[in-house]
């Protein structure tokens, strides 16, 4: 095979690599818009027991009740109760929730416990409830923008002392849990990611969350927790598919241009 053909095949292969639907690029981190600054957002109420620490904004809308602050404390943010800021945040959560719900599944894990699994970037689906007992490991494969999406038809429940950990780069900001009803984290669970629940979110005693607890319609219930979105103040987005396609087309066009120049010179 002559050099011209080799270069042409290399260009086509490169385009296929970028545009061929690799699972690593099938999932998309939705914009959280006005909810970006929130660590906790409830739909009806936000209630707290004990010395919970929230880093980021805390809010509720359309409900107006926020109780338990103090003894709870909010740092690096403000409490927004049924104001325009909280309403805008809820609208953004709805948009993000719907975006997550519309993403195609990489793998169906219905009926399987997330504990003990190591997962790479993708969209993981449960037709009904999801359970975490033990440790779930998310392997970002060295990609700072790796996105993990969990689509859960009904409830998300973690057992006591469970955890979600990230390895090989990545960011908790790009982990999303779309929950069809309610999420409950068992005592002392160490959790990462953005939980977007249609109804309610309950963090039992000693739960730590790096990310966000965002409930669309129901309550967020807290008890001596730490919830921080500080790591997400400057989000690390995954490279969009459209940008990858443009890049691939540009590189492919460059390859054809070189072939034409060589053909003219021959």
Describe this structure in words.
With 266 residues, the chain is an alpha/beta fold. It has three helices and 22 strands. The chain has helices spanning 3-19, 84-101, 241-265, and strands at 38-42, 45-49, 53-55, 57-60, 65-67, 73-75, 79-81, 107-108, 118-119, 122-126, 130-132, 135-139, 148-152, 156-158, 163-167, 175-179, 183-185, 190-197, 201-203, 208-215, 220-223, 226-228. The strands form three sheets. Strands 1, 3, 4, 6, 7, 8, 10, 13, 16, 18, 20 and 22 form a twelve-stranded parallel sheet that branches. The protein starts with a helix and ends with a helix.
Topology pattern, helix = H, strand = E:
HEEEEEEEHEEEEEEEEEEEEEEEH
| Oligomer description | single chain
Low-confidence stretches: 1-25, 234-259
Strand content: 25-35%
Quick one: overall form? globular
Number of strands: 22
User: In this structure, how is the largest beta sheet organized?
Assistant: 12 strands, parallel
Structural class category? alpha/beta
Number of continuous helical runs: 3
């Amino acid at each position: 095979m002559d050099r011209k053909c080799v270069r042409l095949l290399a260009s086509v292969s490169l385009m296929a690599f970028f545009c061929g639907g690799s699972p690593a690029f099938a999932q998309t981190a939705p914009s959280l818009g006005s909810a970006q600054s929130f660590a906790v957002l409830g739909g009806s109420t936000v209630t707290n027991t004990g010395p919970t620490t929230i880093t980021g904004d805390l809010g509720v809308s359309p409900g107006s009740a926020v109780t338990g602050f103090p003894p709870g404390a909010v740092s690096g943010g403000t409490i927004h109760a049924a104001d325009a800021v909280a309403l805008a945040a809820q609208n953004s959560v709805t948009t993000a929730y719907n975006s997550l719900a519309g993403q195609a599944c990489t793998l169906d894990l219905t009926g399987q416990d997330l504990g003990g699994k190591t997962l790479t970037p993708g969209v993981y689906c449960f037709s009904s409830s999801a359970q975490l007992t033990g440790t779930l490991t998310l392997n970002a494969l060295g990609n700072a923008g790796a996105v993990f999406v969990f689509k859960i038809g009904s409830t998300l429940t973690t057992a006591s002392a469970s955890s979600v950990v990230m390895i090989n780069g990545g960011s908790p900001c790009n982990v999303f849990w779309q929950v069809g009803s309610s999420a409950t984290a068992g005592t002392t669970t160490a959790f990462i990611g953005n939980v977007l629940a249609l109804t309610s979110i309950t963090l039992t005693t000693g739960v730590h969350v790096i990310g966000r607890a965002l409930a669309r319609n129901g309550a967020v219930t807290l008890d001596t927790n730490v919830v921080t979105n500080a790591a997400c103040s400057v989000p690390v987005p995954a490279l969009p598919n459209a940008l990858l396609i443009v890049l691939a087309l540009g590189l492919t066009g460059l390859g054809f241009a070189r072939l034409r120049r060589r053909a003219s010179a021959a």
